[in-house]
Amino acid sequence: MSFLIGENMTGGYGGADILKGCTVDVDEGEIAVIVGPNGAGKSTAMRAMLGMLELKSGSVRFRGKEITHLSTQARIAEGIAFVPQTNNVFVNMTVLENLEMGAFLRQDDFRETIEQVFELFPILAEKQNQLAGELSGGQRQQVAFGRALMSQPRVLMLDEPTAGVSPIVMDDLFERILEVRQSGVAILMVEQNARQALSIADKGFVLVIGENRHTDTGAALLADPEVKRSFLGG
After folding, report:
1. Which residue, of 9, 14, 86, 196, has the fewest CB within 10 Å?
2. What global pTM score does this model have?
3. pLDDT of 1 strictly over 80
């Protein structure tokens, strides 16, 4: 049984269906990556699993529990965190205030978690009193990543985490993703850098026009001639 699974998902944002019976899942302590061409429904599949759009058919289950009809906030309370691609920090708040916002559902002392985030992203400790809007794009991504971890999620969803950052920052973010996976957190991400994402993935899903085209281990997809030709640039 998968830790988190969106099964046979069909739906969209009110017009034509973007998802057409696709299935995406991730297990505990695993990295699962969704790749595919623009308009394939990658981010939509992730958002559907978080409850950000209503499915016409299909279901979402988390830790064996049906959550298809739960609100997004209720799913977050269950232990799912999400980092959107854009507008993912509070630009008029400091780095520290951003992290504190990530713990809004917690009733306990979360100072230890802040220290864990600072250990993962040392630059955030240095800039904790600086406004997030003054940071570089890569540093903002670290703030967004850290804020999501403040809720101590069981599943972390990342939508294009390396979009618009330099290759050095991208490599560093992938290293941090691997570190978080080692703590037992399940990571589901949509990523434009398909080759590098699949290289760290336990599992990969190639979506085309809202449907599963290929599903396999990351290594197997990287070695698949059709996948390489059609989606990885040869």
Report:
1. 14
2. 0.93
3. no
